[in-house]
Amino acid sequence: MKSSAPKSSVSAPKAPAARSVTPNPSAAQSSAPSPSAAQSPHNLSRTQFAVLQLLARHPNDSFSQRQIAQALKVSVGTVNRSFSELYGRGFLERGDISSAGLEALEPYRVKRAIFLAAGFGSRMVPLTLNTPKPLMRVKGTRIIDTLLDAVIAAGIEEIYIVRGYLAEQFDALLLKYPQVRFIENPLYNESNNISSLYFARDYLRSTYVFEADLLLYNPELVTLYQYESNYLGVPVATTDDCCFFTTGHYIDRYAVGGTNCYHMFGISYWTEADGQRLAALAKYVMEEVPGGKERMWDQVSVNEADGAYRVAIRPCTFDDITELDTYRELCELDPAYCI
Predict the structure, then answer these.
(1) Based on CB atoms within 10 Å of each CB, which residue in 20, 25, 240, 261 is the most buried?
(2) Cα separation of 262 and 142, whole Å?
(3) pTM, whole model, 2 decimals?
């Protein structure tokens, strides 16, 4: 018999009571997503989008074209051409974004954020025996707070946390973040993190997906608008960690260890259409693929998509974000743990 998510409804009791949601089992199709090379047409070029997004994010700042070129890592000539095109379409006024420009960004608006926080964090034992890893503090700040603060600062108000291990401890987040809702993962102890994506599948459209145990130093990585589905990654000569191989701007393959690739960080964005396809893929793998529940969701989303969508690489640096994998790494960041 195929498994399906239990039925429930979205509830909103008074804070700080926990608010839990459960997916609708009919929301995603039960078969694997069919490949589709067609992408939704963009009404903006990549550079036009980047210029408008930068101006929208900093409405009270004044930028020269040279400063914008440096921020976007493109030539001044490219920015100059984009400015001319944007002025011609009425998307800029006096060097700033116009109301028409803001309207042009709307199809790219991020609607929600999902945090995958159900796991045990075995590599951080004994610290995680009593505290889920995302709730551990580094220099007084909970790890997950660095991500939540960036999401809220970007203007994203719909936030879901998939929880499992020591689930009730996440209720403490409601004191600071009353808008958070929880998605329960009853399979966290018998499956890999694909199960967390499975239980969150109703909310994957126009959505950020975060691994909840990342320490974010650069909140500018989290923006209100995204051009296309993408993963964060750091270009490296070699790594023994999770990584992506790319062709041009797009990811071809996920692997563990490689050379001339991108070190993967677990922050991704999924468009409306691609999120729907990803939801169908997660449901298919969990319910129909033998051993599917043992798979990593990052591996599934890239290696098993079979052309259903394209995922871009969004470059970042190791100064922007870090993942604490071991007790030694934690001690290096916060000497208070070195007792």
Answers:
(1) 261
(2) 27
(3) 0.88
